[in-house]
Amino acid sequence: MSQSFDRLPALPLIVNDPYFSIWCAADRLTDAPTTHWAGAVKPLDGAAVIDGKAWRFLGAGREPAMETVSLAVTPTATRSALAAAGVEVTIAFTTPLLLDRPDILSMPVTYVDVSARSTDGKAHEVSLCFRMSDALCYELRDFPADPERREATTDPGYLCAQRPAMLRDSYAVNGLNVAFTGRAHQGVVGHSGDGIAIDWGYLYLAGEGEVAAEETALVGRASGTVTPEEPLCMSLYAAYDDIASINYFGRVTPAWYARDGKTILDAIETFHTRRAELLGACAALDKELMDKAFARGGEDYRLIVCAAYRHAIGAHKLIADENGDMVFLSKENNSNGCIGTVDVSYPSIPLFLLYNPEFVRGMCRPILKFASLPVWTYDFAPHDAGRYPHATGQVYGLKTRGYERRMHGLVYPPIYMYPASADIFDLRGQMPVEECGNMLLMLCAASRADGDWSLEAKYMPLLDKWVRYLIDFGEDPGEQLCTDDFAGHLAHNINLSAKAVCGVAAYALIRRGLGDEAACEEYMDKARAMAKSWLERASAGDYTYLTFEKVGWSMKYNMVWDKLLGLHLLDDGFYEKETKSYLARQNEFGLPLDSRSDYTKSDWILWSASMADGETFRALVKPVAHYLRKSESRVAFSDWYFTSTGKYRAFIARSVQGGLFMPLLMDKWTGKA
Q1: Residues 6 or more apart from 493 whose CB is under 8 A from it?
Q2: What pLDDT sits at residue 5?
Q3: What pLDDT shows up at residue 149?
Q4: Which pLDDT does position 155 carry in this prediction?
Q5: Res. 163 pLDDT band, cuts 50 70 90
Q6: Which of the chain's ends, N or C, has fewer CB atoms near its CB within 10 Å?
Q7: pLDDT value, residue 265
Q8: What's the burial of 175, exposed, middle or buried (CB within 10 Å: 0-12/13-18/19+)?
Q9: Which one, of 114, 135, 98, lies nearest residue 270 by Cα?
Q10: Is the pLDDT confidence value at 132 over 90?
C-alpha cells in the first residue's frame, strides 16, 4: 500500500485563534492525544467500528490504530486517510482563514469531514464516531509550564480531576442538529497569561446527522453499509463561542464577525449554507499558494508555507474598535503572552501584505491608540498593548509595583488610564529604535500595498516623533533591546541600525504618500546618508559585523525593505555578497541568528533568504524544511530553535511565522511573480 506524508513537528487540526487551537504533536493522527498549542490535552477522538470491530483513526485510546495511508497539510486543511479491515477512513479539518474575507476568517468554525469507503470490493457495516472533549472549555490550573514535563497529563484521570462543573444541551435549528457544552460558572475574559487555554465560553458541534451532548464530550455519529460505490460520509462543524474576545481599552468586545450582533449560530449557519463556496475558496487558495511556493523554492518551501499559513493567522484575534475599524491582535505565545506586540507584528506582516493590508493596519491601531495616551510619555513607540486577552496598556518593561508579568492567570490593572505622572515603566526594558522602525515600516508597507495613507495622516504627530528618534539615536544605537530580546541588551547593533535606516526611508515614503514631495526628498536624503555611513562602518569585506565595534556577524534581515520597497539605499552587489556569506555559517538545521549562539529564528532566515539569488535562496531554505521534517521537539512550528540539534529553544505557534511568506511578497512587489 503506497504511503505519503507531510511530516511536521505538530499537525494543525483546529487553528482559529489563540484559544481555539488544537494540534496533534505526532507524525500520525493516531500517535498521540490532541492538545492545545501550549500542550494541555484537549482531546479530539475518532473511532470506526468495522463489521463489529472498533478501530481508532484520531487521538489516543484503547482501540487499535488504523494504518495511516496518507497525511497531507495544506495552507487551510489537514487531511489523513487511514485503513483497516478492507475500509479506508478519511478525516479532514478545514479552516477557511481567508484573508480577503475577514468576516469568514473571524468566525471560529472548522469543517470536520469524515468518510468511509470499501477498498476490498466488499460491503462493510461501518459506524463512525467523532468526539470533542469538554476539556476544550476549561483551563487546567496546575498544568506544567514545560512542554517536556507533560506526559502525565495524557491520563484521562488527570482531566477528570481538573474538571469543573459543566453544563450541556442539544437542539435542532435551521436544519442542523446542534450540541454545546461549557462551564457552569462563566468568568468571561476572566484571566490573562501565556501558556493557558480559555476558561469561559461554549464549545459547539453541529451537523445534519446525529449530534449529541454527552457527559464529557460532544459527539457526532454516522452508520451504514459502505461499498466501493457508496461511501459513508459525516460532515460536522466544530465551533467555539468565546462570548467576548478582548478587553480593548475598557470595552469588552466580541470577535469581528459578531460586531453587528451575529451569534455563533449565525456563523455555523453561514458555514453550512456556503459550504461548497467556502471549501472551493480554500482549495483555490491552497493550490495558488502551494504552486507559487513550489515554483519559488521547490518542495522545501512548499512544506514551509503549508506549515505556516494557519499557524500565523491563528495566533491572532480579529475585533472591531469603537469606530468599527479592524483591530488584529496577536498573542505572543510561549513568550510572555503580550497582546499586539509590535516586534511580533513586524515579522508577521508579509503574509498579510500579500492578501489584505488592512490586517497590518489592524495591528498598528492599538499601538497608535496607546501611544497617544498620557501614560505613555516617551518619544518612541510602545512595545505592546497589554497581555492577552486584555489590551489595556503595555506590560513589557513595567516597574514591579506589586505584580509580576509572568504570574499565571493574572489580570493587569487598566494601565491605559494611568496619568503621565505615574512613572510606571522601566526605560531599560524598552525597545526604542526597534519599535519606532517597526511602526514606520509597517504603516508604510500597508499603504504601499493599497495606496491608502489615511491612518498615517491621522497620527502624523506620533510619526514625526518616532522618525526624529531614529535620526537622533538609530544610526549607532546605544545599549538597548531589539526584537531578539532573548539575546539580551546589545550596544552598536548593526542590524538594529539597519532598521533605523529603513525606518527613516519609510517615513519619507509616507510623506510622499501624503503629497509632500519636498519632505520625502529631505528624509530620503537622510536615509541615504545613514545607509552610506552604515555600510562603511559595518563592512568586513565579504560580510558585515554584528556590532560597529567590528565583532561577530549577524543576519541583516532588516535590510530586506531596501529591496522590497525599491529604496536603492545599497547596491545589488552588497546583497549578493552578504547572503552568500551566510552559506558557510549554516548548521544542519539552519543559519544561526548571529555569532553569539547557534540558535536561530526561522522568520529571519526567510527574510534574509528573500534577498538572495535563486541558488542561495534554496540553500538557506532547505535546512528550515529539514527542521520541520526531523525535529524531535513536538511543538507547533517553533520559530526559535537550535540549528545544531533541531531542538526548539522556546516560542510555539507564534504569529511571526507570517514572515516565512516574505519571498512570495518580494516576488510580487518586485515584479518577479
Answers
A1: 477, 480, 482, 546, 547
A2: 78
A3: 45
A4: 55
A5: confident
A6: N
A7: 98
A8: exposed
A9: 98
A10: yes
Distance CA(545)–CA(595), nearest Å, equals 9
CA–CA dist 105, 127 (Å, integer): 32
Q: By the 8 A CB rule, do 305 and 293 touch?
A: yes
CB contact set of 470 (below 8 Å; sequence gap of 6+): 433, 436, 437, 440, 500, 503, 504, 507
Start-end of H helices in 372-490? 432-450, 454-458, 460-473
Residue 261: left if φ>0, alpha if ψ -120 to 50, beta else—which one?
left
Residues facing residue 65 across a β-bridge: 56
CA distances from 118 to 48, 86, 224, 226 (A): 13, 6, 12, 6
- In angstroms, the CA 165 to CA 191 distance is 18
Whole-angstrom distance, CA of residue 514 vs CA of residue 567: 18
Listing DSSP states for 623-666 in one string gives: HHHHHHHH----SS--SEEETTT--EEE--S-GGGGGGGHHHHH
Amino acid, res. 277: E
Share above pLDDT 70 across residues of the chain, in percent, rounded to a whole number: 95
Per-residue pLDDT for 673 more than 70? no
Q: Which residue carries 555559517 as its cell?
A: 585
pLDDT in tens, 583-604: 999 999 999 999 999 999 999 9
**CA dist., res. 578 & res. 611, Å (int):** 9
CB-based contact 135:42 (threshold 8 Å): yes
162 — pLDDT class (breaks 50, 70, 90): confident
Q: Are 423 and 403 in contact (CB under 8 A)?
A: no
What would the mean pLDDT of 414-440 be, rounded to a whole number? 96
Residues 6 or more apart whose CB falls under 8 angstroms from that of 316 comprise: 17, 18, 328, 329, 330, 331, 655
CA distance 213 to 190: 25
- Cα separation, 237 vs 351, whole angstroms: 27
Nearby residues of 626 by Cβ (< 8 Å), 6 or more positions away: 300, 588, 589, 590, 646
What pLDDT is recorded for position 1?
41
CA–chain centroid gap for 663, Å, is 18
Residues in Cβ contact with 283 at an 8 Å cutoff, skipping those fewer than 6 apart? none
Which of 388-402, 467-481, 609-623 is least confident? 388-402
Judged by DSSP in three states, 272 sits in helix
Per domain, the residue ranges of the chain are 4-273, 286-669
* 594: CB partners within 8 A, 6+ apart: 487, 495, 546, 552, 553, 554, 555
Q: Is the pLDDT reported for residue 2 higher than 60?
A: no
pLDDT score, position 484: 87
Q: How far apart are CA 21 and CA 17, in angstroms?
A: 6
At 569, the amino acid letter reads: L
CA-based R_g, the chain, Å: 25
Q: Which DSSP state fits 59?
A: S
Structurally, at CATH architecture level, domain 4-273 sits in Distorted Sandwich (2.70)
Query: For residue 4, what pLDDT band results from cuts at 50, 70 and 90?
Result: low
Cis omega (within 30 of 0) for bond into 144: no
Answer whether CATH 1.50.10.10 is correct for domain 286-669: yes
- Which residues make Cβ contacts (< 8 Å) with residue 567, sequence separation at least 6? 502, 505, 524, 527, 561
Give the whole-angstrom CA distance, residue 119 versus residue 113.
19
Q: What is the distance between the alpha carbons of residues 98 and 219, in angstroms, rounded to a whole number?
A: 28
Mean pLDDT of 153-167: 69
Identity of residue 21: S
Closest-CA residue to 289 (of 224, 354, 241): 354
Q: What pLDDT, on the 0 to 100 scale, is given for residue 152?
A: 41
pLDDT cut 90: percent of the chain above it = 91
Cell, residue 586: 549554516
Report, as an integer, the average pLDDT of 436-453: 98
